[in-house]
């Protein structure tokens, strides 16, 4: 996996403290839909490297982080900018939907 995996502590540092525009994929290894969505996100990662942050949280290993964000189901892709939640995409999503959300979050940074 090419995405940096976060835990509760690194999530705080990378998402809230750094203020970088980013997305965080909440996924589970045994999830069939996740196995389709995560590779799409990984592919986009190389396209936006240096401009937009891409992170991964395994919900089985970081259950408390997942629960603290009141998330239900996987996959969930959460978007942040300047440490502020900007919205999410859930379930089976297309590459275009993810790119639209990335573009929205990059607009002010261009």
UniProtKB/TrEMBL annotation:
Keywords: Redox-active center. One of its GO terms (molecular function) is protein-disulfide reductase activity. It comes from the Bacteria. Gene3D superfamilies: Glutaredoxin. Residues 1-107 form the Thioredoxin domain. SUPFAM superfamilies: Thioredoxin-like (SSF52833). CDD domains: TRX_family. It holds the Pfam family Thioredoxin. Transmembrane segments: none annotated. The keyword NADP does not apply. The keyword Magnesium does not apply. Belongs to the thioredoxin family. This is Thioredoxin. It comes from Desulfosporosinus fructosivorans.
């Amino acid at each position: 996996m090419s995405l940096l995996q976060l835990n509760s502590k690194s999530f705080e540092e990378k998402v809230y403290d750094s203020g970088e525009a980013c997305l965080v994929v909440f996924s589970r290894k045994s999830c069939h839909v996740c196995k389709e969505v995560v590779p799409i996100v990984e592919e986009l990662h190389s396209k936006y490297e240096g401009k937009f942050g891409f992170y991964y949280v395994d919900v089985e290993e970081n259950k408390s982080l997942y629960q603290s964000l009141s998330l239900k189901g996987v996959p969930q892709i959460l978007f942040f900018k300047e440490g502020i939640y900007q919205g999410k995409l859930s379930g089976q999503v297309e590459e275009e939907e993810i790119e639209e959300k990335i573009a929205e979050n990059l607009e002010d940074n261009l």
